[in-house]
Amino acid sequence: MDVPADEPTEPTGADPVPLTEPAEGVPPVVSDLSALRRAATALAGAKGPVAVDTERASGYRYSQRAYLVQLRREGAGTVLVDPIALGGRLDPLVEALEGTEWVLHAASQDLPCLAELDLHPSVLFDTELAGRLAGFERVALGTLVERLLGYRLEKGHGAADWSRRPLPADWLNYAALDVELLIELRDVLEQELKRQGKLEWAHEEFEAARNAPLSRPRAEPWRRTSGIHRIRNPRQLAAVRALWETRDSVARERDIAPGRVLPDAALVDAAVRNPVDEAALLALPVFRGRAQRRMVGTWLGALQRAAALPRTELPEPSPHHDGPPPANRWSDKDPAAALRLAAVRAALTAIAEANTLPVENLLLPDLVRRTCWQPPEDLTPAGVERALLDGGARRWQVDLTADALAEALQPPPPPTE
């Protein structure tokens, strides 16, 4: 049966084969310099792309460092590297991987911690991003492997505390499986993108991901505290901010995930209840625990500093925006902008559907909002094209959308009498 060029190929329908362990077994973890040199030599002498993955300890540690690096290349097999045991110095590996194509799944999650180890891809292929561009609705690694390769991966330890030593054998088995089929998945996705005429789009996206800033500090990150919607006034917001910043300092110093130092719910509860002394604070849930009793003076000090702030230093009730306001307020603030946004969204949705793409991969939602809130003075296709490129859109995105956006951004004709 012929498949339309803009739709992803359907799977064969056969039951997936469980893949519970790597075909070559789980290799020993590389944890000393001599073993690292041998592994690097093997990788350098192999051929083709290199599958790369990392394991972090998110939810357990403050840092986002890599506690295990997994690599696989045809001719070298799988390599598991312990960067902690090696003191974060992987120089032989850096040299061995120079100039090779790296295959990662959801690369933006791994590239920052790899960069901490001085590991930077020369060429990137992101299988998650490739799956999105190919039009697959579900792009988790296990889902794509099952659909396109016919294997069901053994999963279950992605959220584990990978800072633990020694690492359990079943964890290492899981980590090795994450790169076992990554090269095969890359090859199938490349062929699918080529079949759909999207391979050059993917190359542009991969290069943008490879060169994207590794860290983007958020303005006022304390405002992301879960449950902060319960806060009613600026003085309470100041209390949340003070507790959040104190917790962050403690978590960073101890390298513990902030939520394990003190959960968000406790920050908000203390800000709302406003305890006046240690006894009142210790009466609150969570603060009754042994760990919090030891730190009661620290938490109360944060609350007292917030209470002593002059009004001029209290936080604003709403976060500061360096761009347009939330879209649900546009109708009140600028009805014309709201009409532009609706027209542009409709145009983009039609283009995305015609090309079997998620609309958010067609153009970043933030760029769409900014363009609609403050459109370019030149509303010709060429003017819109320049505005999109200046806003970070890729060439393929501009080619698909500039004409339609130029039309959608036009002011409505004056009403006829």
UniProtKB/TrEMBL annotation:
Coiled coil: none annotated. Pfam families: DNA_pol_A_exo1, DNA_pol_A_exoN, HRDC. One of its GO terms (biological process) is nucleobase-containing compound metabolic process. InterPro entries: 3'-5'_exonuclease_dom (IPR002562), Exo_C (IPR041605), HRDC-like_sf (IPR010997), HRDC_dom (IPR002121), HRDC_dom_sf (IPR044876), RNase_D-like (IPR051086), RNaseH-like_sf (IPR012337), RNaseH_sf (IPR036397). Residues 233-313 form the HRDC domain. Residues 1-26, 312-332 are annotated as: Disordered. Gene3D superfamilies: HRDC domain (1.10.150.80), Ribonuclease H-like superfamily/Ribonuclease H (3.30.420.10). One of its GO terms (molecular function) is nucleic acid binding. It comes from the Bacteria. PANTHER family: RIBONUCLEASE D (PTHR47649:SF1). This is Ribonuclease D. It comes from Umezawaea endophytica.
